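Why this split exists: single-chain examples teach little about how molecules sit against one another. For that reason, every record in the complexes split bundles all components of an assembly together and asks for one structure covering all of them. Below is a record exactly as it appears in the raw files.
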Amino acid sequence: MTQARMISDEDFRKFREFFYRKTGMLFEDSKRYFVDKRLLERMDATDSESFRAYFTMVRFQASGEELQTLINAMTVNETYFFREEYQFRCLVDSMLEEIVTHTRQQRALRIWSVPSSSGEEPYGIAIYLLEHWPRLDDWDIEIVSSDIDTEILNQARRGRYTHRSIQNLPPSLLAKYFRRDGDHYLIDQELREAVDFTRVNVSDAADMRRHRHFDIIFCRNLLIYFDDLSRKQTAESFYDALNPGGFICLGHSESMSRISSLFRVRKFPEAIVYQKPWEAR
Amino acid sequence: MALKKPAPTAPSSDDERRLARDLPGLLSALAAADPLARRWAARDLAAHPNASRALVDRLRIETEPSVSQVILTTLTRLGDEIAVAGLTECLRSEDAMLRNAAIEAMKQLPDEVAPVMEQLLKDDDPDVRIFAVDVLESLRHPRVEEWLIRVIAEDPHVNVCATAVDLLGEVGSERAVPTLHALKARFVDEPYIQFAADLALKRIAQG
């Protein structure tokens, strides 16, 4: 069935433009095979006779269900526990220290991990704080984690991982926070309950407005999928999601300086991160 | 104290939500005293194709740089004639940050900026002409080289020509060679022009 159908150059261009408007994600020509394969799979799954029929359904379906399924199919969700761990060290040794020093009133400190993918990052942050931030005895921490892909959010809530995901974790932490579940590792229930998983499209202003008052945002290796304008728009939304003095951590190959001038570059011993100025309004 | 489950994330009801999110509500919020409310209004106005005029008017009087940044981003997203005119106007601003942000924004609108480029390159103010050349630096438009050649052929101001010739060194082809020689002859007493034109010629020769 799949072989009989084709995605023409014009179809690809139309789809790319539509998907970009909806999500901010821009597929270069080099991603053509990746996009075509997933489109053809979804056309099969929905018994669509042609790209045109499928595309019409995606655009005009009242529930938006197929668009969400397509978004789930088009997003890449590959990560593992303690990826780019140096930023977690920066979190406990530098960023949180600066924030608590400036924060007069006792309140919960809020961390946002986006995209959540299957949960390795937000749970990894939680473990790192429990293990390495002694002030956790004095401060409450709230962790929110978000993704555009609803299927991966469900997976994150389940907290069940393959060996590949946990291979960077020291055995002591694996024993302390996970239990074996067949070939998988199931994360501790208390940790699962400590993270609030939400669905967010970072290109959607209304979605972003619901996520606010954060002290630290981890947004690693997401903006690389966006074009310049969407990247800038998202960075500006993050600015308003942060409290004054809040920090944003990007992936090692990303630089906020090339995206927006709203943030200050902070060079800590462990990592370079970006800060909303304390005096910002 | 410990890890604490946050309250479920729900639509917020404070400050920026006080005003309705329809066009009249957003236009009111664009004039709110709180910069956060103004930024959210400017951001949400991207969904309203008729908002460019109000955004351009606000940009003229806006004093908070973070709000100006968001307005510029929304104008880039809208990209209509009024938005482009508003961005162009920023090239005359004394505020270097605003000017640079407008240059960056214009680079992202090649098709929309193209119709006004000729006019900008003939502006009475040489600084505006230099900024227009700066826009060309990464404007993805097939006429970039043609515009630059015309600048070095006709512009009377040495600094405008110097900016253009630097860029021609990067994007120029064989087509630019005769005009580069003519430029050297026109500014025979300007060592920088001699140096930059020679460098551009060398780079073009190297392909």
